[in-house]
Known about the structure:
Blueprint: E1 2-4, E2 25-28, E3 31-34, H1 55-66, H2 74-81, H3 83-122, H4 134-141, H5 144-176, H6 182-197, H7 202-205, H8 209-231, E4 244-246, E5 252-254, H9 272-282, H10 289-295, H11 302-328, H12 348-380, H13 390-414, H14 418-445, H15 451-484
Antiparallel strand pairs: 1-2, 2-3, 4-5
Amino acid sequence: MSIELNVSYGSINGDNDHSYRQPLLSTDDEGISVETPTKFGDESHIKGDKLKTSFWETLINFIKGNLGSGFWCLNSAFGRSGWVIGLVGIPVLGLLSMYCMQLLLQSKSRIRQLHDRKFRSEGGAEVKMDTGRYEDIANIAIGRRAKVAIQVCLIITQFGFCCVCLLFIAQHTNELLPYFTVQEYVWLLVPIVSVLCFIKDFKVIAPTSAVANVLILYGALVTIYFFITVWDVTKDHDRCLRFYQEDEDETTTHKCVEKEVGPQMVGAPTDIPIFFGMGMYCFQSIGLILPMEVEMKNPRQAPKVVTIGMTLVICLFSAFGFIGYWVVGFDAEDVTKSSISEFYPNTPLYDSVKIAINIVLLQTYALQYFPGIQIVESLIDFQGRWGMRGWKLMIARNTLRVCICCITAVIAISVPHLGLVISLVGALGCGGLALICPPVLHLVLYPEIPRWRRGCHYAIVISGIGGVAIAFYTSLVAVLKAGSQ
Length: 485
């Protein structure tokens, strides 16, 4: 019996897919053979070893990549699930994400091995095959439909991150300078982020990562100090929605608002799917691991980076979410209170943290916007499909970038509830990329794996589809309910 993987070898560097239509992989009873593709992408972008990242540099970047806006909303995720389910659910989601990252790396390794084996068997000159793009792996392994599905998930995820960043910055700015509403601040941010969107080279953004690392560390340390100081104020396990408020003489003191909510062991059943979406949003590194592997001096250490990095991230998220929820509590009826930073006192120290987070999120907006707009531009194909050149091409691209930037602002204004936006993006985009696609790719590329392992992969896929569907529906209902209030 012969099994053929119906694969179109897509362009690694964004060329039109219709220029390659022949299968890359085919399997039979005796093993796997590789069909030679007609063209390989230009690998001139591959860096020399001196410019590539070491193991420790990659590990730091990997951890930092997970400390996005979702990190500051973990207390809200625990509030949705209850602290018991939160302490179990975050590690489970993290371990599943880690396992699926390993599957993604193995899938890319299998494609590379098959490619190298084919060229060695023919005795031809070795052609380096490498790609850091998720959708290219799907295209090679399954076909164009899989590539389109990955691209859709990536577009939802990347631009969803941008919506969250806009909303996060606007809320912080409103707290610091309450002269405009959150919605008005979102529109005021559009010109700023539009300038960032004109950046067409990732190298322009990359140097700001060092500053972002320092600001993230500063914010995390001050937040830990906040936890310690507030913990001493609470009594008898009663937690207040806001521990700080202004006195008549404008001095900041430890005071609780009238409504108190104690930490719940288990949240409401209708809130558990929202927790799933928020949890998947927090683990943002599924789209980072392939580009990071390409940039490593020793790509074979990428699985080790994933294992160590995700273990540290899981521990950090579990501790940060649990302590944050235990200290400040959560009110499911007040969906406007989602971030731990919204509970900071109005003092220069904590205001500086909000400013630091805003600066980091501006850089994050540019970083998340960059891969999303690349996919959109490759789908529209101004040069090939529309024949644009010179100033017409520049105007078309810049107009598209500004329009999409405005669309992210409209979405952020339409759903001005940070936690619900995070859950929607996490369910619809991150869930598919992190839990559904990697096992499918691995099943296609490794047909020889044991039945029990195939069963585990099918279970992850089915559970992922069910979790994504339920979380998306529940989050959407919560958004509509919040919008009608």
